[in-house]
Each structure stands twice: as C-alpha cells, then as structure tokens.
Design a protein that fits this description.
A hairpin with a 2-residue loop joins strand 1 and strand 2 (about 40-45). The chain has a two-stranded antiparallel ribbon with strand order 1-2. The protein has helices at about 1-10, 10-30, 45-60, 75-90, 100-125, 130-140, 140-160, 160-185, 190-220, 220-230, 235-240, 245-255, 260-275; strands at about 40, 40-45. The protein has 2 domains: about 1-90; about 100-275. Helix 2 packs parallel to helix 4 and helix 12 (about 245-255) packs across helix 13. With about 280 residues, the chain is mostly helical. The N and C termini lie far apart (about 50 Å). Helices cover about 75% and strands about 0% of the residues. The longest helix is centred in the C-terminal third of the chain and has 27 residues, at about 190-220.
C-alpha cells in the first residue's frame, strides 16, 4: 500500500523516475542491437527514448505549487536536476549514430580546429622571450597533424569505410598525444603569464581534438578502442589537472549553440568515458 500511496502522493517524482528508467533501458537495448522494428528513419527504441527524454524536459520546466501557495522549489529543483542530467548525457542511439552522421560532425569541427591551430601559431609572439622557443617546440607538429586529420575526416565523410575509419582512429590518437605532450611541456614554463597563455592556446586545440576523439570513439568497436588506448601512453588523467574546464565548456557551447552548463556536463562525461576506455 505504501508503494501505491507514494505514487499517488508524488506523481511527478514517480513519473520522472519512470522516464529515467525508460531512457536507461532503451540505451542498453540500443547498445545490444535491439531495435523493436523501424519507426520512420529510426527505430522504435530510439523513438521511445526520444519521447521519454522530451517528457523529462517538460517535467524539468513544469512549475510546481505547494499547498501554501508558494512554489515547491525544492522538489522542482531536484526533479529538474535529474531530468537535466538525463538530457545532458550524450545519447548516440537517439541521434542515429551512423558513420555518416559522425563523419559530418567531425568535418563540422574542422574550421574551429584550424582556427585554434592558427591561434597557437600566433601565441608564441605574446610570450616572454625565453618561453616562446619552449612553446614553439611543444606545438611544432600541430599544423601538419590538423591538416591530415581534416583531410581524413573529409575523405571518411565521402566514403565511410573501415579502412578510412582506421586511419581516423590512428590520426586522432596521434594528435591527442601531441596535444597532451604539449600541455605537459607548457606546464613547465615558469613565467605565470606565459604559462597561462600557452596552456589556453593548447587547450583550445585539445578541446576540439577531444571532441573528435569522442565522435570516433562512438563508432569504434571494443577491439579498436583497446588498440587506440594502447597507443596513448600519456593519459588524460595526467593532463586533466592542468586544464580549465570552463574554457572547454565555452568552446563546445559555442560550437553547438547550447548553454555552457550543458556543454560543461557533456565535456565532463566525454572525458570520463575516454578515461574509462583507457585514454
């Protein structure tokens, strides 16, 4: 009886819990290849997940009035937080995480990547004279690495094949290792102002490289991910303390035209998934 009375007395909480369970369950089903049939251009599972997530968004925005006439801010805030968490979690099964979709998203990042690399190229001029050579040596390979990655991304978009994906997997890991090595070298710069400028410029590139790695990760199998992680001697956990989370969130938010809070959660989850995968 307590179960049913709780459902009756707290309908919004119960509905939120049910919708969270639905989103979680559909995610597992999608990862296991369970589709339950087609629904338009997607699947029944993706449709159910999308509807549940949309309803969570509505619940998060629904004002709740308490018995005393004031807004039930505590309850609404908690429910909104749970709903927002679910909305922030990247759900590749909802987005139709096909090779073409991922390839297009990677290509969409390339102008920002080229701009970030250009910023790195111009940063040495504003550093202290003794620090500029250190920074230049740390970032010397960024132009070639970014040009190769852009070319491979466009080639993969034109023809999403296993061979081109393997090239992307190799290049994105190599580029990330270059960026991480550069962060560690820039952290040795003693001059505080120079170090701050150097780390910010490198992080601009690193944030985009990490975003592209997350995209490549989403279409890579376990064997490929293990191989990619094995080629990553510098781990993200080693570099993470030297980075500014707010800067990464701002870059992602600007790219996807979304709130910074949402981008911050997405960046944090993507980094955690990469660390869990062995990067």
């Amino acid at each position: 009886m307590n179960l049913f009375s709780n459902i009756w007395n707290h309908p919004k909480t119960s509905a939120t819990g049910l919708l969270i369970a639905v989103v979680s369950l559909t995610g597992v089903m999608s990862q296991q290849g369970v589709t339950l049939g087609k629904a338009g251009t997607g699947t029944v599972v993706s449709l159910v997940a999308a509807l549940a997530t949309a309803l969570l968004g509505l619940l998060a925005q629904d004002p709740e009035t308490g018995s005393n006439g004031s807004s039930g801010q505590g309850s609404t805030a908690k429910l909104g937080a749970w709903a927002l968490i679910m909305l922030l979690i990247p759900l590749p099964w909802m987005q139709g995480c096909s090779a073409t979709t991922v390839a297009q998203d990677i290509v969409n990042w390339t102008p920002s990547l080229q701009s970030a690399v250009a910023t790195v190229d111009s940063t040495a001029a504003i550093l202290a004279p003794g620090d500029a050579p250190i920074f230049a040596a740390a970032t010397v390979g960024f132009d070639a690495a970014s040009n190769l990655l852009v070319a491979q991304a466009k080639a993969y978009l034109a023809n999403p094949s296993a061979g081109l994906l393997a090239q992307l997997q190799t290049q994105i890991v190599a580029f990330q290792q270059q960026v991480d090595a550069a962060v560690l070298q820039a952290a040795r710069i003693v001059n505080p102002a120079s170090q701050q400028h150097a780390l910010a410029a490198i992080q601009g590139v690193g944030t985009i490289v990490s975003a592209i790695l997350a995209l490549v990760q989403s279409i890579s199998g376990k064997v490929e991910l293990a191989r990619m992680a094995a080629r990553s001697p510098i781990k993200l956990a080693e570099v993470e303390p030297l980075l500014n989370p707010s800067l990464s969130a701002e870059i992602v938010a600007a790219h996807y035209a979304e709130p910074v809070q949402m981008a911050r959660a997405q960046v944090a989850q993507a980094r955690q998934e990469q660390i869990s995968a062995g990067f």
